[in-house]
Specification:
The protein has about 425 residues and is α+β, with helices and mostly antiparallel strands. Helices cover about 60% and strands about 10% of the residues. It contains 11 helices and 7 strands. A 5-stranded mixed β-sheet has the order 3-4-5-7-6, with helices on one face. A two-stranded antiparallel ribbon has the order 1-2. Helix 2 packs antiparallel against helix 3, helix 4 runs parallel beside helix 6 and helix 6 runs antiparallel to helix 7. The longest helix has about 80 residues. It is rod-shaped. The two termini are about 85 Å apart.
């Protein structure tokens, strides 16, 4: 049973593609056989049509055909040289009195090769020169009348060879352009995927830092209070331990919600609680008040519902700023929080009157609080300022732009 169809031809084409010299050798052999067969054919052998075997090539004709076919083996490496050689042999054959050696076939193949491997202007120049020279020699010096079909065939075959080679070159350039565009798009997708992975890792790290740092700071403060008053005031120590338990439970809940959101695509049953926002800002401030930090709040947003990204960023900025106040501003510090709508922006300001920082840098060494706040604000296209206040204390202000098309809606509890 013989194999046919694309399954049989594909390995052969792949082998010839890997060994172009072998393909050119097979092509040269085929051209030689075609020239030899044509040399035995007489197109005017009888009144009814061409005849085969009435004439035979001369020894010189056989040599010329063999030399032209051998030259085609090098058509890829030296296309212009092969074209000049085969065209010269064709002119010698056309200038003779008889034409038993159709070397024109090799010149046609060589012209196709030049057209397929050069640019279009070169193809036009070389193609016109070859067609003119061969057609003129056939019409002027051939044994047949200038208008015979053999002479016109020389002109037609050389013209078609140039046109076919130019078409193949154009298609090859088109395919290469598509392949390059696809490779570039693939590289762009990979770079975009890596960028998104890096951004997602940064966002996860920022969220975990905000959640853990806030609650652990409260736990640390309340645990210190409990240890300090354990012996003399056990009731106050129990209250501090209750706050520790509440803060730790809140930390676990937020961590569970964060991890649930991360696993949402792979685990549909993972918890998907909404992210915190300014709607629960009073609860956040109460947790700091229980930890011993007096906090006052001033709001002029009218309880309007902000976009989710802006709402979460505003909440996290207040949370991180108050956490820094509790950790670094001293035991007697007081804090003020304000949320103000100004045009198409939301201004979040956190002030404290604690002791000024000891070092020149407002951010604690090795901390990521201010860095995380600045990343959140920058991602939304806003600005953040964090600096010591004149006379003591610290000031954090974030300006968050609102996206166009934001529809203002009052919260349910403000209606």
């Amino acid at each position: 049973m013989t194999r046919t169809g694309p399954g049989f031809a594909a390995p052969l084409c792949e082998r010839f593609r890997d060994h172009p010299l072998a393909f050119d050798a097979v092509l040269a052999l085929g051209v030689l056989l075609a020239m030899i067969a044509a040399s035995f054919t007489d197109p005017h052998g009888s009144a009814t049509g061409p005849t085969f075997g009435d004439r035979a090539p001369t020894p010189l004709g056989v040599v010329m055909m063999t030399a032209a076919a051998v030259a085609l083996v090098l058509r890829r490496r030296r296309p212009f040289a092969v074209l000049a050689f085969t065209a010269g042999l064709t002119l010698v054959e056309l200038l003779g009195e008889t034409r038993p050696a159709p070397v024109t076939i090799s010149a046609v193949v060589a012209l196709y090769t030049v057209a397929a491997r050069t640019d279009r202007p070169t193809t036009w120049r070389v193609g016109l020169a070859t067609m003119t020279a061969l057609a003129f020699a056939a019409m002027a010096f051939g044994p047949t009348p200038w208008y015979s079909q053999e002479n016109l065939g020389v002109f037609a075959w050389t013209g078609m060879a140039a046109a076919a080679g130019d078409a193949v070159r154009s298609r090859r350039a088109f395919v290469d352009a598509i392949r390059e565009r696809a490779e570039r798009a693939e590289r762009t997708r990979e770079e975009e995927a890596r960028r998104r992975v890096a951004e997602e890792r940064l966002r996860i790290a920022r969220d975990l830092h905000d959640v853990v740092a806030h609650h652990i700071a409260l736990v640390n403060v309340q645990a210190g209070v409990a240890a300090h008053v354990m012996d003399k005031r056990p009731d106050q120590a129990k209250e501090a331990l209750a706050h520790v338990r509440e803060a730790s439970r809140s930390a676990l809940d937020e961590l569970r919600a964060t991890v649930g959101l991360l696993r949402q695509s792979g685990d549909p049953e993972a918890p998907t609680e909404p992210a915190p926002g300014l709607a629960v800002l009073d609860g956040l401030l109460d947790s700091f008040r229980k930890a011993g930090l007096p906090v006052s709040l001033a709001r002029s947003d009218g309880g309007r519902q902000l976009p989710a990204a802006v709402d979460l960023a505003a909440y996290r900025i207040v949370q991180e700023a108050l956490t820094n106040v509790r950790k670094h501003a001293g035991p007697d510090a007081r804090a003020e929080v304000s949320v103000v709508l100004v045009g198409r922006t939301v201004e979040i300001t956190v002030l404290d009157d604690g002791a000024p920082p000891a070092g020149p840098s407002p951010e604690p060494s090795g901390g990521h609080g201010l860095l995380g706040m600045r990343e959140r604000v920058t991602a939304l296209g806003g600005g953040l300022t964090a600096a010591p206040r004149y006379g003591g204390g610290f000031r954090v202000q974030a300006i968050l732009p609102l996206p166009f098309g934001t529809v203002w809606e009052a919260r349910e509890d403000d209606r």
